[in-house]
């Protein structure tokens, strides 16, 4: 039977860090019986092999490996090997807890991105600017632009933003199957956020927004939130007498009423009657603002359905784009946008201040020209091109809302 003789290094020398010279007289033999019979032929025996590691500058290891066959003695055969060491840099990522922390941070980041998409950020940014623009209609003099003014604006922005989270979630929940065709990039349609999570967050934000408005105590703010909720629940929820999305006229009226009446008028009344404690009046600049938003919001309502024709037709959603064709509806949208810029231009040039006339006049001419040029370059047969134009007009609205208050301040 074969026996394997292993010589182990001196443990004391290994611990002390010195050179490891192992004497042959101190070798401890460990015998491991073979679990299989020896099949070495008598005329061919494997030579006895001994591996010696050369001594290095700092640490020397003499490790003898000896193999002897049964009943035979052979000459030692020494082979020299030079060992090379490689230094592996230590990294915190090698630790399990570091990987776990990174996984948590990655999940938080992914959820934050999905939630950001769920809230329709382009509409929220425009909503904030719209409330700010409408609040300036309550300003009689520059001294009114005070910390009290910005606190009132912040009250309206925060409460309406929370309710917008709710109505956006309701809309995407109700249109989940349609969005898998029309907007598969949305977090609910793509599965990034579950319907249950959407319901929990939406209900939480609705309660929080209503509670804040109640604590603030502003009646215009409260009825503005209630109307906002009612219009978009009626637009989205598929119950008898609701789901106004299926009727193109009612669907357009939801967008029109929200951006023309609810946001500007409730924000103005909140500032005028609650923040500044002044009697109710409607300045001329507010009338121009409402007229502009009426035309522009109708254009948005019609344009919104142009890239969604495929999914809407499959699920029986009747829209003007399906009834009259994408090209004709798109032309109507562009005309409504240009008419809105014409109203804004007139509001600016009627200002008694010369510099405001110049800024608003030139500004609206430039914006109207850019929209016209962009509309001419939009390919209606390409869904991505139409979607790009749709997001573009939201950006244009944000720029317009920055110019509108100048008419009041002049």
TrEMBL record:
GO terms for cellular component: chloroplast membrane. It is a multi-pass membrane protein. Keywords: Membrane, Transferase, Transmembrane, Transmembrane helix. Gene3D superfamilies: UbiA prenyltransferase (1.20.120.1780). The chain crosses the membrane at residues 114-136, 148-170, 198-216, 222-242, 249-269, 281-303, 329-348, 354-375, 387-407. GO terms for molecular function: transferase activity. It comes from the Eukaryota. It is found in: Plastid, Chloroplast membrane. Its main location: plastid. InterPro entries: UbiA_prenyltransferase (IPR000537), UbiA_sf (IPR044878). Belongs to the UbiA prenyltransferase family. PANTHER family: HOMOGENTISATE PHYTYLTRANSFERASE 1, CHLOROPLASTIC, HOMOGENTISATE SOLANESYLTRANSFERASE, CHLOROPLASTIC. This is Uncharacterized protein. It comes from Flemingia macrophylla.
């Amino acid at each position: 039977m074969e026996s394997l003789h292993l010589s182990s290094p001196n443990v004391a020398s290994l611990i002390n860090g010195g050179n490891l010279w192992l004497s042959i007289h101190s070798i401890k033999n460990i015998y491991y019986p073979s679990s299989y019979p020896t099949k070495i032929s008598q005329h061919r025996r494997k030579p006895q092999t001994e591996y010696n590691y050369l001594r290095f500058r700092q640490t020397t290891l003499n490790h003898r490996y000896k193999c002897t066959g049964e009943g035979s003695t052979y000459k030692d055969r020494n082979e020299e090997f030079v060992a090379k060491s490689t230094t592996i840099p230590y990294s915190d990522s090698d630790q399990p807890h570091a990987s776990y922390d990174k996984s948590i941070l990655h999940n938080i980041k992914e959820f934050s991105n999905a939630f950001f998409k769920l809230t329709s950020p382009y509409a929220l940014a425009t909503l904030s600017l719209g409330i700010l623009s409408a609040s300036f209609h309550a300003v009689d003099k520059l001294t009114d632009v005070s910390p009290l003014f910005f606190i009132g604006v912040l009250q309206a922005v925060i409460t309406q933003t929370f309710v917008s989270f709710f109505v956006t979630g309701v809309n995407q929940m109700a249109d989940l199957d349609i969005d898998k065709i029309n907007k598969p990039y949305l977090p609910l349609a793509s599965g990034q956020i579950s319907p249950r999570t959407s319901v929990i967050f939406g209900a939480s934000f609705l309660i929080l927004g209503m509670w804040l408005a109640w604590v603030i105590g502003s009646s215009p703010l409260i009825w503005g939130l209630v109307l906002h909720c009612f219009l978009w629940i009626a637009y989205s929820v598929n119950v008898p007498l609701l789901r106004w999305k299926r009727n193109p006229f009612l669907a357009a009226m939801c967008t029109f009423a929200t951006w023309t009446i609810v946001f500007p008028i409730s924000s103005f009344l909140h500032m005028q009657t609650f923040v500044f404690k002044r009697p109710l009046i409607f300045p001329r600049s507010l009338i121009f603002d409402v007229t502009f938003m009426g035309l522009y919001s109708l254009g948005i309502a019609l344009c919104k359905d142009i890239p969604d024709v495929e999914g809407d037709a499959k699920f029986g959603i009747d829209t003007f784009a399906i009834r009259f064709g994408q090209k004709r509806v798109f032309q109507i949208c562009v005309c409504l946008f240009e008419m809105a810029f014409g109203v804004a231009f007139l509001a600016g040039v009627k200002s008694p201040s010369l510099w405001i006339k110049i800024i608003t006049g030139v500004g609206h001419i430039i914006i109207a020209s850019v929209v016209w040029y962009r509309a001419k370059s939009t390919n209606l047969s390409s869904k991505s091109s139409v979607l790009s134009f749709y997001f573009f007009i939201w950006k244009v609205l944000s720029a317009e809302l920055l110019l509108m208050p100048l008419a009041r301040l002049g």
